[in-house]
Amino acid sequence: MSDFKGFTFEKPISHQSEPQDAHLTDLSLKFNRISTDDNDSRLGSFKHFRSPIASRSRSEAQEQRRLEALELQKQQRQTSINKARQIALNTTEDDESTTDDEQQEEEEEEEEGEVVEAKETAKRSRDSDDEMAEVSKYVKTMPKKKSKSKNKKKKNIHANQIMYSETMESVPQDLLTDWVLMICPKGKRCMVTSGSGETIARSRAGNILARFQSRLPNGSRTNRTSDFCILDCVYDAVHWTFYVLDIMCWRGYPIFDCDTNFRHFWLQTKLESNELDRSDGHNQFYKFIPLKPVLTTETQQVADDPEQYVQNQGFSYQIDGLLFYHRQAHYRGGSTPLVCWVSRDEIQNMLK
């Protein structure tokens, strides 16, 4: 007979609930401490964990792009001579200049290859005249493949070669030491090239605005040499005048990778010595006038009365705005934070 006398129920041990109660009490105190924090501490905690890019203002973002552009141009050392020659003389690289004869030869070679492949396949399967006739008939009626090179649109090498500015969001901290400004006239921004005995003005998209004879090196039939030039200009159609903002190439020597100070030095020495502002029978009354860079230490004088400052420089054009160039900026096509723009209406507000 079994000795089992039944289950025995005992009260739970009281000391086991004490650590849980103490833990709950500690959590309650922490929750109360968090709930009593003010809004400023919560906002500060949010900003601490917020992404640094989201916290950046527009001016800070522009400054960051400016630093990245300076670092990028240190790493870029492309073949500027070949690039300048292609732009000025309107030539393209070998892989982009496929002639119609070469395209036709490629199509004929492809067609012959298809015929040979079809005949060999039929011969391996059955050596009958009927089968060969069917294959020949199929090859003759088979549609020709269109060459990809015909449908491929040639890239305009003159497009987006002008260096454009960004709107200045705030005055850079190093404005007085690392920047120089140009007082920009009203007109059409364009790139002017001289070579092969003619001068061509092109828009930002690379479209030709005008072909004419000029006093630029190799820019007229009477002044034909092996040289070529590339200029960044603003065209005043009323007075038939090209105001030169920047110079990218002179007499076949490219200066894309030179800083702003060097380019502006060439702009003043090379163009003024050639008296390109005189109109005669060679340039068909077109004039080229280089603009003078202004030190940023004189920015306040320009901001007070831009028109009077332009007259003191010897010019009489209408002002469109101010272009600020970073002194270390190389010339690169497209928009860049290393060149900043302030319109005429915003000069007083931005540079007060």
TrEMBL record:
InterPro entries in alphabetical order: Snurportin-1 (IPR017336), Snurportin1_C (IPR047857)
Compositional bias (Basic and acidic residues): 57-68, 116-127
Biased composition (Acidic residues): 92-115
An annotated GO cellular component: cytoplasm
This protein's record includes keyword Transport: yes
Domain named Snurportin-1 m3G cap-binding: residues: 161-342
Subcellular localization(s) per the UniProt record: Cytoplasm; Nucleus
Primary localization class, coarse: cytoplasm
GO process terms (BP): snRNA import into nucleus
One example GO MF annotation: RNA binding
Record's keyword annotation contains RNA-binding: yes
Region Disordered, residue ranges: 1-22, 35-68, 87-157
Protein purpose: Functions as an U snRNP-specific nuclear import adapter. Involved in the trimethylguanosine (m3G)-cap-dependent nuclear import of U snRNPs. Binds specifically to the terminal m3G-cap U snRNAs.
Protein family per UniProt: Belongs to the snurportin family.
Protein name: Snurportin-1
UniProt organism field: Mucor circinelloides f. circinelloides (strain 1006PhL) (Mucormycosis agent)
Lineage summary: Eukaryota, Fungi, Fungi incertae sedis, Mucoromycota, Mucoromycotina
